[in-house]
Specification:
This protein is an alpha/beta fold and 275 residues long. The chain has 2 domains: 8-156, Divalent-metal-dependent TIM barrel enzymes (TIM Barrel, Alpha-Beta Barrel); 166-275, Divalent-metal-dependent TIM barrel enzymes (TIM Barrel), CATH 3.20.20.150. The protein is 44% helix and 16% strand. The chain has a 4-stranded parallel beta sheet with strand order 1-2-3-5, covered by helices on one side. Strands 7-8-11 form a 3-stranded parallel beta sheet. Helix 1 (16-22) packs parallel to helix 2. The longest helix has 21 residues, at 109-129. It starts with 15 loop residues before the first helix and ends with a helix. The protein binds zinc ion. Zinc ion binds next to loops.
Length: 275
């Protein structure tokens, strides 16, 4: 089975939901990683196509958001990127907006975390003021030790407001731990931590990014495909935990090249675990 989307040139993103449905997939994360360049009208069209195909949409905010910064302008610009993402996300009826909290730079970890906490507070307040908080806002666990966002920090950020839900990138946890994270017990402990702080009902909705990943001593280096088994983590132990706990998580595949193909593999593994 070839899983490459055939209509990229002809249909663009708007044709993608129907194609995902045909291939048995149910979620689509649109990346605004390099900036929000989609018009509201186009976002509405994408949302219509997603509704019609029964595809759950999420939006990934620009990569250059940095709420850990000491510079007020940097925080303001980051909030503006989130705001722009929220505008198109709302137009496409996305259920989650994912963002990278920030990078530490020369700051101490403590200071960077405190800045990020305040930055998220301001961002949530700004989005609420404009009525733009129409879905979950998801800080993501990050793969490099110089980035803010290990599992514990990410869960703690979500205590700031009820609109926040963790995006757990398990590849990133694997890279950040230099390969130590990946056993069934590790996944169970991570989900336990989530449940203990946020409660089971919220934890069950968790947003997940998954891919095999290569790392150096600084953490994340490169995402790989699921067939690249020399890199961890494997999906089976997570699928077993999600199935056993009856989670209603959204799992987004972030493989290097075969995203949709690998997403189909994840779905098969999950369905097997549900039996
Ligand atoms: Zn991300």
């Amino acid at each position: 089975m070839s899983a490459a989307y055939p209509g990229k040139k002809k249909l663009g993103a708007v044709g993608y939901p129907a194609w995902l449905k045909e291939n048995g997939l149910t979620a689509y994360e649109y990346s605004f990683g390099r900036g929000v360049q989609m018009s509201v009208l186009r976002a509405q069209e994408l949302g219509d196509a997603a509704d019609e195909a029964g595809i759950s949409m999420s939006a990934h905010a620009p990569y250059y958001i940095n709420l850990a910064s000491n510079e007020a302008e940097r925080i303001e610009a980051s909030i503006e990127h989130l705001r722009k993402t929220a505008v198109v996300a709302s137009a496409m009826r996305a259920k989650r907006v994912v963002f990278h909290p920030g990078a530490r730079g020369k700051l101490s970890e403590k200071e960077a975390i405190e800045n990020t906490r305040k930055g998220i507070e301001s961002a949530v307040a700004a989005l609420k003021r404009e009525g733009l908080l129409t879905c979950w806002l998801c800080p993501e666990t990050m793969g490099k030790s110089a980035q803010v966002g290990d599992l514990e920090q990410t869960i703690a950020f979500c205590m700031i407001d009820e609109c926040l839900l963790p995006c757990i990138d398990f590849g990133h946890l694997h890279a950040r731990s230099l390969g130590r994270f990946g056993s069934r017990e590790d996944f169970a402990r991570a989900l336990d931590a989530l449940e203990n702080v946020l409660g089971v009902e919220r934890a069950k909705q968790v947003h997940i990014h998954f891919s095999r990943i290569e790392y150096t001593k600084a953490g994340e280096k490169k995402h790989w495909n699921y067939e690249d088994v020399q890199f961890g983590p494997a999906f089976d132990p997570l699928a077993a935990e999600l199935a056993e706990r009856r989670y209603e998580a959204t799992v987004i595949c972030e493989s290097q090249g075969h995203m949709a193909e690998d997403a189909m593999i994840f779905k098969r593994i999950y369905e097997e675990a549900m039996k």
